[in-house]
Structure of Heme exporter protein C:
Amino acid sequence: MARVARLRYFIPYIAIGIIIADLVTVLYTVYEGPFPAVVPLGSPLAYRNIYIHPPAAFTTYIIFGLAGLASTLYLWRRDVRFSRLALYAAGLGVIYGFTTLATGIAWASESWGAPWSWDPKQTAVLLMLLAYLGYFPLRSSIGDPERRELVSSVYLVASLSLVILSILANRVLESLHPTGEAVRDFASDFQAGWMFGARMILAIGTGLSIIVLSYMKTGLPRPLLTLVAITALLSLASAVYMAAPLLEGEYYRVVNAEVGNNGLVYSVTVAKSDGSEETIIFDPPVESPVKPATTADGRPTLTGHIIVLSGDGSLRVLPHWSTPLSLALYTIAVLAGVEIARRSGKSG
């Protein structure tokens, strides 16, 4: 009993440590994470969404999978503890599922050219999310406790089919969404690999930590909640700070650039907000804000980026709006999960 008591004492500290590490790493990667030098469409910086969207998606699948497993165990053992675990997992899964869908739409608006295209992957994620949202009115509509747990568990087990459909949609059907192999190719770069791997591990760890806290009803000491709140506020403030330059004045999309072997930019052709193009010549040439300035085959890496002209005549690259939005959405999702765990602890 003493060991169990010690374990219950340390669980909140371990869980909150994982959650804070998750928020810190997501903040770091959206500012410093590697991104592709050249992309088919849009801003290469939009690909920093890879440190938010795929980890959120994978965590969603694991959480919904846990809900299905817990429901299966309830149907086998008729132990209400499994049904309660499934309830917490389904609730958190919906929060992460919405985050997955919203961050995917934001990223697609830039890298696919449209926020919504009824792509098989997008559609499958939407159907999955709607199915799990339906679990809660179904559960609350049944008055008899034993029948409520039975029907709800069967529903969650059946809903696993939509999780599988979402995972396989872009593999079995033609889709704009990249497969896991494409993500692994990007992560094969050492720096990108360890950052992406850390994001995946910590995002999953955060999701599972929140479920553990909610299920065990351990309660969260006020100092731990304060640390989470401070970290989350820092993340949200950083998202606002990142997006602010996009609201300050006119910016341009680089269509092409003349870049020398010395990394200096001699001219850029930009697309303006009215759809016209303009060539800006730099005399003297300015240093490219993107490093390296060209790819191995000589293509300028400034192409596709969103830029502004600074007062001193230099170039400054701006993030795409999808990245700070995704950062804010992910932070809010984590905060919502922690709030669920806090309320669960108070009710326990």
